[in-house]
Amino acid sequence: MLQNKKIGFIGSGAMAEALIDGILKANLVTPSQIIVNDISQNRLEHMAGKFGVLTTLSIKDTVKAADILFLTVKPQIINGVLDAIAPLLSPTTLVVSIAAGITIGILESKLIRIPIVRVMPNTPVAVGEGMSVLALGHYAGEENGELVLTIFASVGRAIIMDENAMDAVTGLSGSGPGYVFVLIDALTDAGVRVGLSRQNSLVMAAQTLLGAAKMVLETGEHPARLRDMVTSPGGTAIAGIHVLEQKGVRAALIDAVEAATKRSQEMGKKSHG
Ligand SMILES: NC(=O)C1=CN([C@@H]2O[C@H](COP(=O)(O)OP(=O)(O)OC[C@H]3O[C@@H](n4cnc5c(N)ncnc54)[C@H](O)[C@@H]3O)[C@@H](O)[C@H]2O)C=CC1
Ligand SMILES: O=C(O)[C@@H]1CCC=N1
């Protein structure tokens, strides 16, 4: 499906790096099919060294070479990038934007009649365990959707949803790895506090999250039922869970997702103004 296709990236920061890492590990494309653009020579050298991909400081060369063009710059500068690429795009170039908060409406107002797919991935695409949600623009056909779905499904789970879910998706799965890394770091500190080595504690914390997440996905059981299986009457787990409930961890997580969702909504509004 992607044979002979060139994939361009405008912006080669954290998310572009995670995505390229994942699609190369999945053998979806070869490094010579990827061309990466950035304003930072250091970033380009890093990407060429790590992946063997083609790199260029020229936005024009990237746009001209790409059959599929990923916009992987910060939302705050996307308007300038859209202005720069608009006159260079061929009508058949498929544009994939992953910029948080930037709506298909904003993208299509600058890129007239161009097939666009908006995606909210997350950094675990780097290890083949990403969660990506796609929304199709008005000029993106079914085959465009399938192509982008193939790319993101090769690096984790990928689904197509209505665009109006995107801010919530950004608050939950897009930003979610950030929350989980905080949890793993805190659990590691906790292990150290009760006398474990930091090295062992980190592995135990991360593997525990991984295992619990896998159980939810593979058994299809409600997490509350799985939690009940851990809590023996008068035992250790319920003693720990009691503290989590007292400290409002559940409400804190709900508030975190809500705050990130609101921030995504604000970013879209700002960029439109
Ligand atoms: N980091 C994450 O977990 C996720 C990020 N995103 C989205 O991905 C996009 C990129 O985010 P990150 O990779 O985290 O940001 P980043 O700051 O790590 O990378 C952005 C890159 O763009 C480059 N850049 C700046 N101006 C440029 C220009 N005019 N032309 C070409 N390159 C330019 C920068 O030098 C930098 O390397 C954002 O829109 C963000 O909303 C989406 C999902 C998750
Ligand atoms: O923090 C951000 O704005 C980006 C979008 C989703 C995750 N990181």
Automatic annotation (TrEMBL):
Catalytic activity: L-proline + NAD(+) = (S)-1-pyrroline-5-carboxylate + NADH + 2 H(+); L-proline + NADP(+) = (S)-1-pyrroline-5-carboxylate + NADPH + 2 H(+)
Amino acids binding NADP(+): 10-15
Cellular-component GO terms for this entry: cytoplasm
Origin superkingdom: Bacteria
This protein's pathway: Amino-acid biosynthesis; L-proline biosynthesis; L-proline from L-glutamate 5-semialdehyde: step 1/1
InterPro entries for this protein: 6-PGluconate_DH-like_C_sf (IPR008927), NAD(P)-bd_dom_sf (IPR036291), P5C_Rdtase_cat_N (IPR028939), P5CR_dimer (IPR029036), Pyrroline-COOH_reductase (IPR000304)
Enzyme class: oxidoreductase
Domain Pyrroline-5-carboxylate reductase dimerisation, first and last residues per copy: 163-267
Keyword entries, A-Z: Amino-acid biosynthesis, Cytoplasm, NADP, Oxidoreductase, Proline biosynthesis
Enzyme nomenclature, EC number: 1.5.1.2
Keyword Methyltransferase attributed: no
Domain Pyrroline-5-carboxylate reductase catalytic N-terminal: 6-101
Key word NADP present: yes
One GO BP: L-proline biosynthetic process
GO function terms (MF aspect): pyrroline-5-carboxylate reductase activity
Subcellular location: Cytoplasm
Protein task: Catalyzes the reduction of 1-pyrroline-5-carboxylate (PCA) to L-proline.
PANTHER family the UniProt entry points to: PYRROLINE-5-CARBOXYLATE REDUCTASE (PTHR11645), PYRROLINE-5-CARBOXYLATE REDUCTASE 3 (PTHR11645:SF0)
Family per similarity comment: Belongs to the pyrroline-5-carboxylate reductase family.
Annotated protein name in UniProt: Pyrroline-5-carboxylate reductase
Lineage: Bacteria, Bacillati, Bacillota, Negativicutes, Selenomonadales
Originating gene: proC
